[in-house]
Amino acid sequence: MILDVFRKGLYLVGGTLAVLAAVASIGWLFLAYEGDPGAGGNPAALYAVYFLASAIAVVVHELGHLVACLAVGTEVRAFRLGGKRAAIRFRVRTVEVTLGWPYKGMVEHGGAPSVRRLAVITLAGALADLALAAIVLAGSATLASGQIERPLVIAAALGPGVQGLTALLPGARRPSCA
């Protein structure tokens, strides 16, 4: 009973922190680059890049879970992007693939044979998001770019970075979406 109350409280705190981190990242973009000549002086471009990067991060996150399932030998039942209304549905061998607008996703898999394998599957999504953010930042550092691209690069890295960090919090995602 006490452990159940503690778990629910922990998930509530984690979910709240995840929402606050997402709101803070959008607010930070607004405060840091308001009136900045970056992105052609168009703050809407920053938010467009942020939300596009966040949608790409959902795809990368779920692909991280999928690759981890395949790597540890766990059966994958379904790969879903988007909500219940899907634009495309098809099967790849025994995996049902559902594709829609990637604002959320889920990889359904059979039970992992050990706790370690389940931990690998669970962490793979967040680590994939963080790797994507690092690749965006490292790629932009290697290119000869000026001040104008800097806000867009930060917005592109902030989307997957925040999603990766918040996915590590308890309650940030439903436990059944591992």
Write a short abstract of this structure:
The chain has helices at residues 2-33, 43-72, 115-142, 150-167; strands at 76-81, 88-92, 95-99, 105-109. It is α+β, with helices and mostly antiparallel strands and 178 residues long.
Which range does the strand content fall in?
Answer: 5-15%
Major sheet: size, sense and barrel closure? 4 strands, mixed
Rounded to an integer in angstroms, the radius of gyration calculated over CA atoms is: 18 Å
Mean of pLDDT? 83
Instruction: Indicate the low-confidence ranges by residue numbers.
Output: 174-178
Record the strand order, biggest sheet. Answer: 2-3-1-4
Helix content: 55-70%
What is the overall shape? Answer: globular
N-end to C-end Cα span: 25 Å
> Counting H and I runs of at least 4 residues, what is the number of helices?
4
The H-and-E topology, N to C, reads as HHEEEEHH
Number of domains: 1
Number of strands: 4
What structural class do you assign from the helix and strand content?
alpha+beta
Kindly describe this structure.
- The protein has one domain.
- The protein is globular, with a radius of gyration of 18 Å.
- It is an alpha+beta fold.
- It has a 4-stranded mixed β-sheet with strand order 2-3-1-4, covered by helices on one side.
- It has helices at residues 2-33, 43-72, 115-142, 150-167; strands at 76-81, 88-92, 95-99, 105-109.
- The two termini are 25 Å apart.
- It is built from 4 helices and 4 strands, in the order ααββββαα.
